[in-house]
Protein 1
Amino acid sequence: MFKNKSSDGLNNLCGRNVAKLRKAARPKLSQRALADKMQLAGIDVDKNAIQRIECGLRFVTDIELAALAEIFEVSPGELLE
């Protein structure tokens, strides 16, 4: 078993919540639009990175987690639940 993966084999704990929050946003937020918001927050990610985060294929740094929490107006802990 890999040390850096969750018990379900994912590389992050927040990806599923990021996807849920993005899809629940009104107006609906595309992966590209979320990547644009991240870039405005100073985080260099693209649409493909958002897709990999949501699928659990990409690690998420604490800086990225904080930016995502700010964009979705939730706490970082809520993204990790």
Note: Helices lie at 15-24, 31-40, 47-55, 62-72, 76-80.
Protein 2
Amino acid sequence: MNKGLLIIVSGPSGAGKGTVLKEVFDEIESLRYSVSVTTRKPREGEKEGESYFFKSLEEFEDMIERDEFLEYQPVFGNYYGTPKEYVERLRTAGYDVVLEIDVKGAMSVKERVSDAVLIFLTPESKEILRSRLINRKTESAAELEKRVGESIRELETVEKYEYVVVNDTIERCADDIIAIINAEKRKVGRNAEFINRLLERR
């Protein structure tokens, strides 16, 4: 059994990452989301080990000391992190693991996992991105301008990624990501066991 892929998907707020990835998950049975560790309290309906792994601040800091995260960062007064052992266990079992994380987290993971696949999801232009954020109508004018500024700055990190996928339509964007995953699975370097059998190597 080949080891599963580690797929990192990043992109600015308003790029439609969650909607597109739902479409991708509906098409590929081997995909699994990584479950993050967090120090925040569980919300109604959230389940341990499914929504998050909930830890105290002391437990989280112990995990940092033991180098148990692929990446971690503070968000609004709480910590969130990607557990290394959990991701590795899924990949060893043959599952492809998706991390939907920001640029900083993506770069941290790439340093630790050399075969990670980095995909940047973006709208067609800065103008479309701005329009999508405005149309959500979930923030005040000041908050919106801050969000737009952050999202445009995130666009400028696209060159740090291996693949760029434009979300012009959900279906086409999902198809592009699926094509990337399928191509990565067929790379010679990921199929050493099969190649050794093909060439009758012992």
Note: The radius of gyration is 18 Å.
Protein 3
Amino acid sequence: MTDIDIKNSNIICGRNSVLEAVRSGREIDRLLVAHGVSGGSVSVIIAKCSAKGILIKEVSPQKLDYYCMGANHQGVAVMFASQEYSTVKDILEYAETKGEKPFIIICDEIEDPHNLGAIIRSAEACGVHGIIIPKRRSASLNATVAKSASGALEYMRVARVTNISNTIDELKEKGVWVFGADMNGTDYTKLDFNIPCAIVIGNEGKGIGTLVAKKCDEIISLPMCGKINSLNASVAAGVLMYEVVRKRNI
């Protein structure tokens, strides 16, 4: 996984400060714990974060020193998202209030924050109602994502879920058709996107996961005319999003 981009993000470090931040109910992106640190208030912090479903990542003391820019972290720090997360329900309700068919982008383990930011930027321009990302093995809404989105993050609903496959099942129960972008699928120009739909964009190297692909209603592909067999994830996402715009005559 790519390294955490924290240096320019909102961070609180130190045991008492972190414990109060967790208790306050603020939107916490992840807890960082230095290798070998445990017991006492650290165990309490870890337990509270685990109960709240907050991602917990163990890092070396040297990395935590770097992330906290020399502050006395006492082995723990929390990182806050640059924007509060929404829920899948929020996204669907937003589409309903606009009187539009849901148009959703699902990012299956997009790890590069620049890619996620670029996808958010294109999604906002294309009228996407929301983006779904997994809690683990994914870039989060950090400072680099916000910068790469060039302001679009302020207007885009992003839901972070525990399990992408289960979320796809939930969307399908709501009448949303799910299209997975991968190799050896149907030419994307041959399909009708003027329906409630979600498009899954896979990991930069591995593509979409096997189970996620099986959950999709259809696998769609972009024709490749050159010698390489794939596009950058954010570029592919942009092409597919504008095809939805074209088919819907937005």
Note: The chain has nine helices and ten strands.
Protein 4
Amino acid sequence: MSLKDANIGEEYIVKDIETDDEELDAFLFSLGCYSGEPITVVSKLKGGCVVSIKDGRYTIDYELADAIKVQGIK
């Protein structure tokens, strides 16, 4: 499932980032958003969502959230 469909407040593990944009991939990596890392949706906004990655909170748009594939933690 994509991060866009994730529930608020639940922790997920990033499985994959589906983008051909190398700059975007490098940017997400610099935030700590890469395969195997935990990520949590803090809130959803009109044009995107606020996510918690490591010790930071970031606002990302829904197009980017749709490219981040996650799986739930059991």
Note: The mean pLDDT is 93.
